[in-house]
Specification:
With 164 residues, the chain is an all-alpha fold. It has two domains: 120 residues, Receptor activity modifying family (DNA polymerase, domain 1, Orthogonal Bundle), CATH 1.10.150.510; 30 residues. The protein has seven helices and no strands. It is a single-pass type I membrane protein.
């Protein structure tokens, strides 16, 4: 069965609207959003296959949002966080409605694919190790101070001078 994205965006307008959802947990039938997902999936797919299709639709919307940005903006959290959050909420809401666990292997794979596609070239200076010279200084300083402190304690004790 071949279903176009434009048809699904009309049918499942909630997914195509980036401002939907409150991030809550629903079961099928508890909210109108779940009725839409569940009735679509029960009529056309197995739940896990349908979930995979709906995750692709969530990713399609994420890709579209990212496509409207310059690639230089992809590394700016302020510019990307809305689309990223919408994708997260989309996949989580659909999983909750279909009574599937979240996160799951499909979502994890999709997040890795998104990170590889959009964020691989982003600098991560804040997460890098300091230069080797700084690490050496930070490691060697206490190592060198321990023998010096031991020698001072021994000399003070040996001379009988117990005053500080």
């Amino acid at each position: 069965m071949r279903v176009s994205f434009s048809f699904l965006c009309v049918f499942l307008s909630v997914i195509c609207d980036p401002g939907y959802g409150d991030g809550g947990t629903f079961g099928c039938g508890n909210k109108s959003i779940c009725d839409t997902y569940c009735s679509f999936c029960e009529n056309n797919f197995l739940r896990t296959q349908c979930y995979g299709f709906l995750v692709q639709l969530c990713q399609y919307n994420f890709d579209a949002a990212m496509g409207f940005m310059n690639s230089t903006d992809w590394c700016s959290l302020e510019k990307v966080k809305s689309a990223y959050n919408n994708f997260t909420v989309c996949t989580e809401t659909v999983a909750d409605c279909l009574l599937l666990p979240w996160p799951n292997q499909l979502v994890e794979h999709t997040f890795v694919k998104i990170h590889t596609t959009y964020f691989q070239e982003c600098p991560s200076e804040a997460l890098r190790d300091p230069p080797p010279s700084i690490i050496l200084a930070l490691v060697m300083t206490p190592i060198c101070l321990i023998p010096v402190m031991v020698v001072l304690v021994v000399l003070k004790t040996k001379n009988g001078d117990r005053r500080s």
